[in-house]
Amino acid sequence: MPRRRIGFWYRFAAVICKPPLVVLLRRDWRGMEHIPAEGGFITAVNHNSHVDPFAYAHFQYNTGRVPRFLAKSGLFKKGFVGAAMRGTGQIPVYRESTDALSAFRAAIDAVDRGECVAFYPEGTLTRDPDGWPMTAKTGAARVALQTKCPVIPVAQWGCNELLPPYAKKPNLLPRKTHRVLAGPPVDLARFYDREMTAELLKEATEVIMAAVTAQLELIRGEKAPETPYDPRRERIEQRRRTQAQTQTHQEAGQTVQEEGLGK
């Protein structure tokens, strides 16, 4: 299927966004040859800064295949931002939906129309202390298995040095470098034509994230942790630590009280 034209709104957004990005960030972009020239596909991208959606969109805009991001439906409703979101073909996600597949129906339709849909599989900024990709949600895998489209793993690094996760002020100097490395399509063929169970989606998601992490290892020249950071597991461990500390304090207080009564 032929690719969709970039269109007025995306070109207009590029005119607004590209100049500050060029000023703030050097570019070290590699792997553009892996971005399909035609047909629908998915990119799976790591997320480590509030700036990186703009910088990554710049990278892919320059390939001629503009990304369609999934975004909160509220952004589409009114005003200039809403008009821009609709005009650039971004994909609204209705959080009130209880059907996981219907929540991604627009993404599936976009891929079927020959679009690129860019996923941040982690769903939010990474919480890994060293900036590595953490465990991911299964939306990208669900769309990929439903459409059997190519999944391009993409790693990026540098925007997090300009604006670290959850930071309020950017580090403007020295000028940072936005590094992007797109890899070859992830082989998901072994998951095709199988029942789309939670376990299957989890396994396919892990394969996708392993490919993204491998690209980031090449960019950083370091090895990622063997086990990705898991926010859910960390919350459970934090609750256990809090409960243990509370129990220790209670026991210590009881001991002091008993010693006082003994005197």
From TrEMBL:
<dbReference type="Pfam" id="PF01553">
    <property type="entry name" value="Acyltransferase"/>
</dbReference>
<feature type="domain" description="Phospholipid/glycerol acyltransferase">
    <location>
        <begin position="41"/>
        <end position="159"/>
    </location>
</feature>
<dbReference type="GO" id="GO:0016746">
    <property type="term" value="F:acyltransferase activity"/>
</dbReference>
<dbReference type="InterPro" id="IPR002123">
    <property type="entry name" value="Plipid/glycerol_acylTrfase"/>
</dbReference>
<keyword id="KW-0808">Transferase</keyword>
<protein>
    <submittedName>
        <fullName>Lysophospholipid acyltransferase family protein</fullName>
    </submittedName>
</protein>
<feature type="region of interest" description="Disordered">
    <location>
        <begin position="222"/>
        <end position="263"/>
    </location>
</feature>
<feature type="compositionally biased region" description="Basic and acidic residues">
    <location>
        <begin position="222"/>
        <end position="240"/>
    </location>
</feature>
<keyword id="KW-0012">Acyltransferase</keyword>
<feature type="compositionally biased region" description="Low complexity">
    <location>
        <begin position="243"/>
        <end position="255"/>
    </location>
</feature>
